[in-house]
Amino acid sequence: MSLIYSFLVCGGVCLISEIILNHSKLTPGHVTSLFASFGALLAFFNLYNPLIKKANMGAIILISNFGNSLYEAGLKGFYKNGIIGLFQNIFCKSSLVISSTIIFSFIFVCIFKSKD
User: Which residues contact 2 (CB under 8 A, 6 or more apart)?
Assistant: First the structure.
């Protein structure tokens, strides 16, 4: 049953993003930012963790989980060190994700040939 929930959640988000891309003038960068913000909003209302428990990897691999992770890291840092801790924890959490994205993108560019 977990596989079905994962498929439905991940597929539903992909379907929504395709509909947005096809029927609006938003770019993929806009849609990515929209879903990351939506993930943080769901985390604020404490709805993202139950979604992760229900859909497992179907909710973890989405870009909305990046917003959820940043929200949780910032909140933990705020409780630990106040306003400064909020920014410290967010930068620690996001630097790992951004660095790995750059490294893997470089590796894939070296391996695969892009279309002209």
Answer: 55, 56
User: Which structure tokens are listed for 80?
Assistant: 């630990």
d(CA 42, CA 69): 11
Tell me how far apart the terminal alpha carbons of the chain are, to the nearest angstrom: 42
Angle at 79 between CA 65 and CA 62, to 5 degrees: 0
- Global pTM reads 0.79
pLDDT in tens, 94-115: 787 788 888 998 999 899 877 7
Query: What is d(CA 31, CA 17) in angstroms, rounded to the nearest whole number?
Result: 7
